[in-house]
Amino acid sequence: MLSYKKTGWALAASIVFPGLLLAQKEIALSNPSFEDIPNHSTTPQGWYNCGFPAESPPDVQPGAFYVSHPPSHGRTYLGLVVRDNETYEAVGQRLTAPLEANQCYEFALDLCRSETYLSLSRTTGQAANYAQPVVLHIWGGHGYCDKRELLDKTDAITTTQWRTYTFTLRPRRGSYTYLMLEAFYKTPTLLPYNGNVLLDNATTLRQVACETPTTVKNSTPSPPTPSSTKATAQPPTPSRSRPTTPDSSGSPAVEPSPAAAAPSKDLPTRDTLKQGATFQVSNLYFDADKYDIKPACLPALEAIYHFLIQNPDIILEVGGHTNELPSYEASLTLSTLRAKAVAEWLVNKGIPAERIQYKGYGKTKPIDTRMTDEAHRRNQRVEFKILSMREN
Fold first, then answer.
1. pLDDT, tens digit only, all 392 positions of the chain
2. Which helix (DSSP H) or strand (DSSP E) does residue 376 occupy?
């Protein structure tokens, strides 16, 4: 009876509103099942390699790196990995018709994870299993590999059995003629790691009615349906208590003036931006032994927030640091908490969580090696690193 009612309404809509169904378009992907000759470091036909220049392309599976998972459709599928040297794989293609701004499109994709994906670690050169769960990002852009707008993303793909994930894409910053599928780390994460995601059996992108309220849903597998992890704007992170990992020098840190805003010269301009670059913002320091956000730091954090708003293609790492007084293990803990505090402030302010990572460097990267209170204060800091950005 329900099926009959749905069919009846569809028929009635086509009669009463003859242009309604015709207005909804479908955009077919080229080689949606990633069919090709199985081989490592080979981007399947119809897709373009959007990985890092010095790294190998994605893989047509099964068979490469001891991956033996059967396909969910056809004979082959795509394997994407993330690496412990902060590189990750992606593929893109030009669409036959644009994804139009403020219109909604739905498509599905089969995803899973291989328990075995044996290769070499990029940081140690030793054998490694790239088996940790990763996230899949879906980007819209104006060219191959152009990460103009993040249209949707999954939670970490933990299942080793094929699951169908349904995505709703709604471009908000413009219309896009290119689509990119990117493997990325589960965030926030302390360190880059080796992981994989397998992709197969993509469907046509079908225009659908946008839901109200007008927010893009987090992609969901069926079954099961994971809970949404989208960040929402909240008040600034409250102060945190003193951890048991002191870097105290016996005297409090010098307190910057609350009215002192971060000078614009601290922030890189669009002409000087480049992937891998690091920078620091004035008046963004921590008291000894602590990792709470002080009122005096708010102008500096606001500057970083506006920098990210003005550069929506940038993915940023917040790196925490301590002075040289605590032990190695204690400095890692405290520096991680400092980086996390800043990352959480930015996310709570409204920056998407997928654009912010944090990492603690402990006392391994001092900027002032003098044994003075001022040197200790300067080392009790956070710095920012551009992990990813759109090429000009």
1. 323 233 333 333 333 444 444 456 899 999 999 999 999 999 999 999 999 888 899 999 999 999 999 999 999 999 999 999 989 999 999 999 999 999 999 999 999 999 999 999 999 989 899 999 999 999 999 998 888 899 999 999 999 999 999 999 999 989 999 999 999 998 877 789 999 999 999 999 999 999 764 333 344 454 433 333 333 333 333 333 333 334 544 333 333 333 334 445 567 777 777 888 888 888 888 887 788 888 888 888 998 999 899 889 889 999 988 888 877 777 888 888 888 889 889 988 889 988 988 888 888 888 888 888 888 888 888 889 998 887 54
2. helix 373-379
Domain span including residue 334: 264-388
Model confidence pTM above 0.85:
no
Q: Tell me, what CATH number does 307's domain have?
A: 3.30.1330.60
Nearest to 114 by CA among 154, 165, 161, 164: 161
Do 314 and 321 meet the contact criterion of CB atoms below 8 Å apart?
Answer: no
Distance CA 315, CA 376 (A): 29
Tell me how many domains the chain contains. 2
Torsion of CA 60, 98, 141, 348, to 10 degrees: -110
In terms of domains, do 188 and 284 share one? Answer: no
Domain match, 195 and 312 both: no
